[in-house]
């Protein structure tokens, strides 16, 4: 498989799973100190990752959880943001402008920050009360870095009593499962990329716990890294405007999840099958990880999704377009 080193991937996943214990230890410390609410703060790709946990939170816990854009909340403030809040933020570089500015804002107000970083010596890590290290080799590592702290807090709060079972099953099955998914999907990804790499427009649809994945792949990968024109829309919003853009040759990609919103995805699927000949469906149910309980499927679906899309499909888009995923025209090229 192109751009896939299996032995390195397995070793990195093992390290990241071990880091879940760091997150759980932090969760225990926060729980002992006490907290009133949780703020999930991000921008771009990190905001997309946080979308998943905000969706899960509203289904699992009574603890108030707020999802906010770093560049906006620092300007608007938030009436529920106070010294008893806990902030989660992430930055691969550790120096993302908006994230660092908000970390300083938190420090000035005495608000505790948990950061997810790939560089423990970074600006963000130094501005944080606690930091968890993730390996910058794929978005799945970012999701995994959140599991210990997020579900650890829910576990301590009595909202997720199966934390230990989830961790046990991840330790035993996740590595083989994700390798198998990449292997199973690789040729499919190649076929999709060959057909759509020169598309002048793509529509991406999804919902629920996978909406952040749709948002991330269409904007941060296809737009930023491949300069391809896309639009992303929630399955629930699709029927209130965007459906009018559908014609027989419209390129549409639908990401189907395993949570409660799957019914909305299926409604969109029924319509699209009748009105476009260019529909691609990614169903995480078809790529479930063996020996991990079905009740955890919605929790793990973004990890499965990002392995399919970012892990495999993006690499085949890159191979076909000839445009490196590392080349940017504007982003971080100069001050703006």
Q: Could you describe the 3D structure shown?
A:
The protein is α/β, with parallel strands linked by helices and about 325 residues long. Helix content is about 50%, strand content about 15%. The protein is built from 12 helices and 9 strands. It starts with 5 loop residues before the first helix and ends in a 15-residue tail after the last helix. The model has no long low-confidence stretch (mean pLDDT about 95).
What would the keywords be for this entry?
single chain; 336 residues; alpha/beta; Rossmann fold; 5-stranded parallel beta sheet; 9 strands; 15% strand
CATH superfamily of the largest domain: Glucose-6-phosphate isomerase like protein, domain 1
Walk across the major sheet and give the strand order: 2-1-3-4-5
Proportion of β residues?
Answer: 5-15%
How many beta-strand segments?
Answer: 9
CATH topology of the largest domain: Rossmann fold
> What's the tally of helices?
12
Low-confidence runs of at least 5 consecutive residues = none
Q: Class of the largest domain in CATH?
A: Alpha Beta
The number of domains: 2
Topology:
Blueprint: H1 6-18, H2 20-33, E1 37-42, H3 45-60, E2 65-69, H4 70-76, E3 85-91, H5 97-109, E4 112-117, H6 123-126, E5 130-133, H7 139-156, H8 163-196, E6 202-206, H9 211-223, E7 230-234, H10 235-238, E8 251-256, H11 262-275, E9 278-283, H12 297-321
Parallel strand pairs: 1-2, 1-3, 3-4, 4-5, 6-7, 6-8, 8-9
Helix pairs in contact: 1-8, 2-7, 3-9, 4-5, 7-12, 8-12, 9-12
């Amino acid at each position: 498989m192109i751009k896939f080193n299996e032995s390195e991937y397995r070793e990195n996943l093992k390290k990241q799973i071990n880091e879940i214990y760091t997150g759980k230890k932090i969760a225990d410390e926060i729980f002992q100190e006490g907290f009133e609410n949780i703020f999930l703060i991000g921008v771009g790709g990190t905001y997309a990752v946080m979308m998943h946990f905000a969706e899960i939170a509203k289904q699992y816990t009574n603890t108030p959880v707020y999802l906010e854009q770093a560049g906006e909340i620092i300007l608007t403030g938030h009436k529920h943001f106070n010294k008893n809040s806990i902030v989660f933020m992430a930055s691969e570089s550790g120096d993302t402008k908006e994230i660092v500015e908000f970390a300083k804002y938190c420090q000035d107000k005495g608000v505790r920050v948990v950061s997810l970083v790939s560089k423990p010596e970074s600006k963000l890590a130094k501005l944080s009360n606690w930091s968890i290290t993730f390996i910058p080799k794929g978005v799945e590592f970012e999701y995994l870095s959140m599991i210990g702290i997020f579900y650890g807090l829910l576990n301590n709060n009595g909202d997720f009593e199966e934390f230990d079972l989830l961790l046990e099953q991840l330790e035993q099955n996740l590595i083989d499962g994700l390798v198998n998914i990449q292997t199973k999907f690789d040729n499919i990804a190649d076929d999709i990329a060959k057909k759509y790499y020169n598309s002048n427009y793509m529509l991406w649809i999804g919902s629920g716990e996978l909406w952040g994945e749709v948002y991330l792949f269409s904007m941060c990968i296809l737009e930023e890294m491949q300069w391809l024109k896309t639009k992303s829309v929630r399955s629930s919003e699709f029927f209130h405007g965007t459906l009018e853009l559908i014609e027989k040759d419209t390129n549409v990609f639908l990401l189907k999840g395993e949570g409660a919103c799957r019914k909305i995805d299926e409604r969109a699927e029924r319509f699209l099958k009748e009105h476009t000949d260019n529909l691609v469906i990614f169903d995480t149910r078809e790529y479930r990880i063996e020996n991990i309980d079905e009740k955890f499927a919605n929790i793990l679906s973004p990890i499965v999704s990002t392995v399919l899309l970012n892990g495999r499909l993006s690499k085949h888009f890159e191979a076909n377009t000839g445009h490196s995923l590392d080349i940017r025209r504007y982003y971080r090229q100069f001050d703006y």
